[in-house]
Specification:
260 residues; alpha/beta; Alpha/beta knot; Trp Operon Repressor, Chain A; 2 domains; 9 helices; elongated
Length: 260
């Protein structure tokens, strides 16, 4: 996977690329992250990348010329290749695990980091092939969003995590597994088994792998029902899952009745 990141702050990524998963993926050859300074694609002595918006209003807007030139340079280096050009924007489609899985199937991504009041609309209409938002809030620039996209996508690339089952068991993962199918992860515990009187559930110490699997699945469903019930609408769920959900709801109703 090649990431071409177009930004006015390439130094922003220095620390991010030298730690954790992105560093490992780069060292292992699973990810090649190339930073392009947008100011290198300007043609004036001040290296101007923005200007005031037509019609007035606050803030500055990224000019189209440098962004088009940057992407055209990337495309010239890979003639004949087709790859997504993604504008990081609060107006884009929400980054979900499903979107990350979609992007992880690509061989190359261009990430455009906006800033200030935004970018010239002609960039969104005629240059970007996709717009992605990492949440319903506004950041000062797209650099943090680009880092999130790279982390989310890179961890899905074969060989990056070392254990191919790890990503399948994450919250929101759609693959089969102890969690999977787009629900929250189950609780996890480690040593000591007794910490300040809070003990690890006995089932996890039993060595019975089938019972542990069922316990994890039930607790994952329970957590999702309590914290993110909207995720349960995505389904489909097995008959065993539906039975567990009915038991979870019934137990919650009984507990509420006792409190009331």
């Amino acid at each position: 996977m090649i990431f071409d990141v177009v930004t006015i702050f390439p130094d922003f990524f220095a620390s991010i690329l030298e730690h954790g998963l992105l560093k490992r993926a780069r060292a292992g050859g699973q990810a090649n992250i190339r930073l392009h300074d947008l100011r290198d694609f300007t043609d004036d002595r001040h290296r101007t990348v923005d200007d005031r918006p037509f019609g007035g209003g606050p803030g500055m807007v990224f000019k189209p010329e440098p962004l088009f030139r940057a992407v055209e340079r990337v495309k010239a280096e890979a003639p004949g290749e087709a790859f997504p050009v993604i504008l990081l924007s609060p107006q884009g489609r929400l980054l979900t695990q499903a979107v990350a899985e979609e992007l992880a199937r690509k061989e190359r991504l261009v990430l455009l980091c906006g800033r200030y009041e935004g970018v010239d609309e002609r960039v969104a209409e005629h240059l970007a092939t996709d717009e992605i938002s990492i949440g319903d809030y506004v950041l000062s620039g797209g650099e943090l969003a680009a880092a999130v996209v790279m982390e989310t996508v890179t961890r899905l690339l074969p060989g990056v995590l070392g254990n191919e089952e790890s990503s399948a068991q994450d919250s929101f993962a759609r693959a089969e597994g102890p969690v999977g199918k787009g629900i929250l992860d189950c609780p996890h515990y480690t040593r000591p088994a007794d910490f300040r009187g809070w003990t690890v559930p006995e089932i996890l110490l039993s060595g019975n792998h089938e019972e542990i699997r069922r316990w994890r699945r039930r607790r994952a469903l329970e957590k999702t029902w309590r914290k993110r019930p909207d995720l349960l609408a995505s389904g489909p769920f097995s008959d065993d899952d539906r039975k567990m959900l009915e038991e979870i709801k019934r137990a919650a109703c009984e507990a509420a009745a006792q409190r009331g």
